[in-house]
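User: If only I could read backbone structure tokens as easily as an amino acid sequence. Underneath my words sits a plain record pairing an amino acid chain with its backbone structure tokens. This is the protein in question:
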Amino acid sequence: MKKITLSLIFTIGFCSLIFAQSAEEIAAKTKTKNTASSLGSESSLDMQSGGKTLSTLEIRQYSSLDKNGLQRMFVEIKNPPSYKGSRFLMIEKADGTTDQKMYLAQTKKVQKISAQGSADEPFMGSDFSNNDISFMERDTKLDNFKILGEEEYEGKSVYLIESTPKDKNYTYSKTIMRITKDKNLLLKAEFYQGSQLVKILELYDYKEVNGIMTAHKTKLSTVKTNTSTIITIKKIEYGMKIPDYVFTQKYLETGKK
């Protein structure tokens, strides 16, 4: 059974042959290590430039599996007033791709995020693109994986795993992840376009919530602009009962049943 992922995402064998066979399993285990099939959370997004916070978004997120075990995610902005009421909906398809839509409160219109250009646009001025948001729910079957080696990172023994998309038109040409050897926790992911490092994802402050190790801080930095967005979880509930209507076009547009 598939499990809900949180933020943003890998066990490993002990010889080179097992490494070759286990890379995708590592990715899958890290993405599905949570045992809940649904969650609700409240978080803040601090958008920074040069280390200084410029603005903050307050968001509410719901994630759940449908009857076929496919991922669904709904995000609503609660503050500031200029963005309040804007909503984002992501529905996973059977082939592993996602259907993404954004309702903008300012225009009162729904934008379908299908073209690559739209998927790469910043989410409400943050460092997260719409593709970055869905990356956290991305099906491992869409990528190829290999183990690059081991190292020490932040005082922990980690594995280095590289993923490359099967679709050559995907936003990133490769992602290099650092995952703890003991608990399979993602600590860092580097996103590349060609040979150029473009974004860095870092996860901090892991705490156990209902038996699930949860990163309470997630930082995504854009190398070229020297900007960052930090997501801080303020409240989270696993196993939340989320009605199906939350993941509908009507709820996206109105915020009502």
